[in-house]
Amino acid sequence: MRRSSQLIVRPKGEAEEDVECPICLDAFVAPIVLKTCGHSFCRLCLIRSTRLSTSGHLCPLCRHHIASSHRLREQAPDEALVDRVAAVLAVTGGAARHAAREAAHAAELESLKSAPPKSLPVFYMWPGTQPGAHVALHLFETRYRVLMRRVWDGERLILYADAAPQAGGSAVVVRIDSVHFLPDGRANIVGHGVRSVRIREAWIEPATAGLFYAMIDEYHQRSVRRPNVWLEMRAGSTALSQEQAGVEAAAALGSWCSIL
Q: What is the pLDDT of residue 203?
């Protein structure tokens, strides 16, 4: 006689739901509270969500705009939520499992701050840029919204090429110094060229609306530096605000938008 078996799922109590991240549906790990809307998430869950989002730097629950100054990786965990998680785990058990999740989250977050990777997302547009040049761009395409999601809370490095990347070509590593996210997901960025690199391999990353990534060789300085006029606008000016940079970048890019 066969004995039937049923999976018994214990319903969560109110206390457990009160400390549950709405993304991973598990107890908060290093919980942070968004200042603009008050919603709470595991730090890593929120960073993952914003890095993958194609609609902008938005709260995953209410879609409220997250200010560009809100550095998710650097915000301190909410102490009240940390204490509540500890209190619930003391009653329900699971402290050991939670400690393992904390270690895994910390390791992944640390990887976001590691040395510059050998592959980077690519922004391309003629005439490109050069090491040391001031870079100000207005990003509006879906693929470049994905790009900003992925780099802003990570290493803040992108590749800037003068044409679609291909093996054997060259590009310039650009460090993003500041960004102003608009409510609809567009972004005005300000940065500077770091150094030239040689592209070893390039491909379009899946599910990114056409965003190129490139594998690069070790950094190397190019002996020939092309003049770049319009990307050097206001270079050396310390009074240029993020909004002003975005306006100037958008104006400078106006004649180039048709080729994007």
A: 94
- Give the integer Cα–Cα distance in Å for 120 and 205: 11
pTM: 0.54
Q: What does the chain come to in residues?
A: 260
Residue 11 preceded by cis peptide, ω within 30: no
Paired with 197 in beta bridges are 171
Which secondary-structure segment (H or E) carries 136?
Answer: strand 134-139
Contacting residues for 13 by C-beta, under 8 A, at least 6 apart: 92
Q: What angle separates helix 95-112 from helix 43-52, to the nearest 10 degrees?
A: 40
Terminal alpha carbon distance of the chain: 69
Indicate the angle between helix axes 95-112 and 79-92, nearest 10 degrees. 140
Q: How far is CA 135 from CA 81, 189, 238, 256, 258, in A?
A: 40, 8, 14, 15, 20
**Rounded CA gap, 250 and 189, in Å?**
10
Helix 43-52 and helix 142-152, axial crossing angle in degrees, nearest 10? 150
Helices of type H across the chain: 14-18, 43-52, 79-92, 95-112, 142-152, 242-253
- Write the pLDDT tens digit of every residue in 187-239: 899 999 998 999 989 999 888 899 999 998 755 444 334 334 333 333 333 33
